[in-house]
Amino acid sequence: MEPSDEKIRELINALARDTRTDNIIAAEGYTREFIEDFAMQYAKEICDERRRINEDFQPERERERRYGIDVSSWQGVIEWNRVKQSQNGGFAMLRAAYGNEEDSRFEQNYQEATRADVPVGAYLYTLALTPAQAREEADRLIELLKGKRFPYPIALDIEERAQVNLGRERVSEIIDAFCSRIENAGYYVMVYSYENFLATFLTDEIKEKYDLWVADIGGTPTISYGIHQYSFRGTVDGIRGNVDLDYAVKDYPTIMRDNRLNGF
Fold first, then answer.
1. What's the distance, CA 96 to chain centroid?
2. Average pLDDT for residues 171-193, to the nearest whole number?
3. 46 burial class (0-12, 13-18, 19+ CB within 10 angstroms)?
4. Whole-angstrom Cα distance, residue 181 to residue 159?
5. What is the pLDDT of residue 32?
6. Longest dimension (CA), the chain
């Protein structure tokens, strides 16, 4: 079955934004072969759209926003004093865990970033396929957060293909199970994923209940968000290789202090 004109435009836009192929396949239900053939057939349109998006997104227009990064063990040893002096040294979201397994650099990143006066948040990459598993992951994360202060939110990273296959209602139940557990422990929680996932697989209730951290590469998200991840391939002094770049549109440190959340 051929995609409709509207679906063709959506796929061109998704590929132009450099969304990972696996994410597109998972969200749209197409095969890898179909997406690869589509990309070849509409190569010119995708390139034209990419140029348009790049022209539309101008970070200099957003100077009042706080620019930061998100990191995990993949970045290895980070020189946080140098990160602090960079354009994206305003905050850092640190991966705390992958499922129930602690990120091997979380403790060091927290201590060293805090020492360098880089405000931090934390996130867990979820593997949960049921609300019970999500609560188990939340309890593990709460253990890792104890005794620490986080001026930025605690986030649930949800993007596995197996979760997409569960459908909107079950995905939203998993998110709510995790996030409510984290909230009840005194933390400000948000949900991270790529824009199409958040728009498609979260109920309106969940989108209104929790802040969103949206991955939308090259353009500005069309859904409401608290943090925008705008690059997977950033360069930041003090970090070897590529790093994800973000900006926040809320004054999260003030929210945490005023409401005595996240260890404050």
1. 13
2. 98
3. buried
4. 20
5. 77
6. 57
**Count of beta carbons in the 10 Å neighbourhood of residue 211:** 23
Cα distance between residue 166 and residue 34, in whole Å: 22
Q: What six digits make up the tokens of 110?
A: 């927290």
By residue count, the chain amounts to 264
C-alpha span between 186 and 259 (Å, rounded): 10
* pLDDT tens readout for residues 100-119: 999 999 999 999 999 999 99
Residue-wise DSSP of 232-258? EEE--TTSSS-EEEEEESS-HHHHHHH
- CA-closest candidate to residue 181, choices 214, 129, 134: 134
| pTM score, whole prediction | 0.79
pLDDT per residue as tens digits for the range 21-59? 555 665 566 777 887 777 778 777 876 776 665 544 445
Identify which of 141, 94, 96 has the alpha carbon closest to the alpha carbon of residue 118.
94
According to DSSP, the residues that pair with 120 across neighbouring strands are: 92
